[in-house]
Amino acid sequence: MYLYMQQEGVEPDNYTFVSLLKACGNISNLDLGQALHDNIQSRSLACDVFIGTTLISMYGKCGASLEAENVFLKLPAKNLVTWNSMLSAYVEGGQAERALHLYRQMLDECMTRNPETLLIAIQACNLLASKNDSELHQENKVIALEIGHTLHSEARRMNFIQDSHIGNTLLSLYGRCNSVTKGENVFSCLSGYEVISWTALISMYVECSQGTKALHAYTKMQMEGVSPNQQTVVSALQACCVLKHEGDIFEEQSSSLEIGRALHEDAQRSFTDLDTFVCTTLIGLYAKCGEILEAENVFCVLAHHTVVQWNGMLSAYVEQGQGRKALHCYRQLCDSGLHPDQGTFIIALQACNILLEEMEDASFIEQYGAKYNVHGVGQALHADAKKAGLASDVVVGTGLITMYSKCGTIREAETTFAGLSKHNMVAWNAMLSAYVNQGQGIKALCLYIHLKRTLPLLNFVTIICILQACSGVGSLENCWQLHFAALTAGHDAEGFLASTLIHTYGNCGDTEDALAVLSGLTRPIIASWNSCIAGYGAVGNALSSWHLFEESQLTCNEATHATFTSLLAACSHGGLVDEGISVFKYMKEEFLLKPFTNQYVTLIDLIGRSGNFSMTEEVIYNVPDNCSLSFWMCLLSACCLHGNSELGELAFNHAINLQSEEPTPYVLMANLCYRKMAFNESHAAGH
Fold it and tell me: Which long-range contacts link 165-168 to residues 24+ away (Cβ below 8 Å)?
């Protein structure tokens, strides 16, 4: 119509421009909106408060908050609608902090506020609380809750609290901030309980992981004659997922699966077509409950599949550890003509990781083959992500870094990291973990130095990663720095952090600081004791390791396989054969722990090096049938050292039965035969 007016030479007036700008905002046509703005400026109409306000609203709906701000600042006069439009533009542009700052400015200028003003300000708090990609996520929630509580008080004082829009938005905020009691107070003050309000209450309970309360609210809603809509059903199904996570505790011990099935049946009776979100949530619930066939049935009966539903099915397979099916599902999605989104790539990369984890206990050659195959799939996913313009996305990129790291292709992980559009803490940690997992501690420490310049305050995961790198390369100075950084950042040196610090100090040969950290713990967990025991063992102080073990029994009366692995390693480093045998027996007889293969390997290495083959034969007699190649290789090495050809032949036969293609047993056996032949020749010459 506007183009037709131009062709006919009809001059638009103020009201025409307002209508046209509203239309541009409704269809998010920024180009036409900017063209109208230029036309308005050429006619000196931009200072008109109605046109200016509509321009702000249009730019806000088009996601151009900077342009909206420019219009706002240039307006000579502003009314309440103008302020609300600017607040809304900030919220629509994802700029929660700016919106709340503007609201503060309204208060400072004693501006009148209406229910819409408060509603938008509460929406800004919601936006701030939901910023998951922020490094200050928890702090943002605290700030959002504090401001939201103030806005709640203002709404009550101004008699706006019964407004359902304000109430529902407050419920959403309190849910995100895990403040159930305040949310329940809001709900009790609402003037009428419509389905939207009930849905907001149920969603709040789900957000706060209170599945039982959510389902009680769903039941009460229906008892009061309010029929659920499809969003209510989604929230109730999500409550079932929460219950499944909590352990299926609900009235009369009904399981979350049974409740989910009942909700599914009710929804089918109530609605002609189930929407995308209901179906996707059903797929997720059935997958969590291990009913993958039911998840597939929900998916298959759908007439049309959206990317969201494909992602739901992909997640279902990943949830059940079915990596191959998930990747096959990804291929079907692509073949259907749909384009994978960020979520699709993340789930597909998780499927790759599942395939790699399945091969962790396989032989070296089998693991190599699996890594080669998964690496090829990962590269194909990377190529697809590039086509979709998502390879530089920080979330997808982080998934690619993790996948490449697990495949052992660190250079591709580095290239992916360098190509990210931005680097958040999760991406930094993924790259650090990649270096640590590949034994490249020096590179991890170099990255840490660069990271310190970018982000002075490190989070818990980062500190753990760098400590592991320090442990690998024996960097005591960096360990001291990280210990200080952890305390400065407010991380208590307890639990896992304490165990990692003790382990790192021990690996750096600083048993004094390791013991100091242990002594400073109020209630040391067994992992912390284990780390300190291992530290003393690594420097050859087996006696101190044993004393620490005895002390740990007085404190926590607990021991794990890791405890005895550390004690055996300490005995091995110190060459304490009798003590090592005692530790092994103590583990089996006192703690009833079945020895792991690596513990048998340490014991046979200790006894074998001493040349005590009578004791070695006793160990062999008790060793499990599925003992690893490393056990027989260790025994074969000891036989070579001491020239025991009979036991050596036994070890050789077991080794080649396990892996006939491994060359090392043949080399060791050849050396043993050569030694035996040389000994026989020498003995014959002596006669």
Answer: 165/115, 165/119, 166/115, 166/118, 166/119, 166/122, 167/197, 167/200, 168/196, 168/197, 168/200
Please, how many CA atoms are within 13 Å of residue 100, restricted to the half-sphere of its CB?
21
Spatial contact of 65 and 59, defined as CB atoms under 8 Å apart? yes
Structure tokens at 313: 């099915």
**Residues 86-138: tens digit of each pLDDT:** 999 999 999 999 999 999 999 998 888 999 999 999 999 999 998 765 556 67
Angle of helix 307-319 relative to helix 292-300, nearest 10 degrees? 170
Quickly count: other Cβ atoms within 10 Å of residue 222's Cβ. 13
Model's pTM, two decimal places?
0.75
Which segments within 295-400 are labelled E, that is strand? none
Alpha-carbon 13 to chain mean position? 55
Which two three-digit tokens encode residue 252? 């009369």
Q: How many other β-carbons are positioned within 10 Å of the β-carbon of residue 44? A: 8
Contact residues for 361 (Cβ-Cβ < 8 A; gap 6+): none
Q: Categorize the per-residue pLDDT at 585 as very low, low, confident or very high, splitting at 50, 70 and 90.
A: confident
How far is residue 478's CA from residue 501's CA, in Å, rounded to a whole number? 11
Using alpha carbons, list the distances in angstroms from residue 590 to 403, 414, 558, 564.
Answer: 42, 49, 11, 12
DSSP string, 397-432: HHHHHHHHHHHT-HHHHHHHHHT-S---HHHHHHHH
CA–CA separation, 292 and 320 (whole Å): 8
Q: Distance between CA 573 and CA 473 in Å, rounded?
A: 19
Q: Which residue has the tokens 């049946």?
A: 265
Could you identify the residue written with the tokens 């908050």? 65
- What is the 3-class SS of 466-534, one letter each residue? HHHHHHHHCCHHHHHHHHHHHHHCCCCCCHHHHHHHHHHHHHCCCHHHHHHHHHCCCCCCHHHHHHHHH
3-state secondary structure 206-240: HHCCCHHHHHHHHHHHHHCCCCCCHHHHHHHHHHH
DSSP 321: T
What is the chain's length? Answer: 687
Whether the pLDDT of residue 430 is over 70: the answer is yes
What is the SS3 assignment for 73? helix
Q: Are 55 and 17 in contact (CB under 8 A)?
A: no
DSSP SS3 for 109:
coil
Our CA dihedral for 59, 63, 65, 70, rounded to 10 degrees, sits at: -30
686: Cβ–Cβ under 8 A, 6 or more apart, which residues?
A: none
Question: What would the two tokens of residue 35 be?
Answer: 């063209």
* Long-range contacts (CB closer than 8 Å, 24 or more residues apart) made by 335-339: 336/305, 336/310, 338/305, 338/306, 338/307, 338/310, 339/307, 339/388
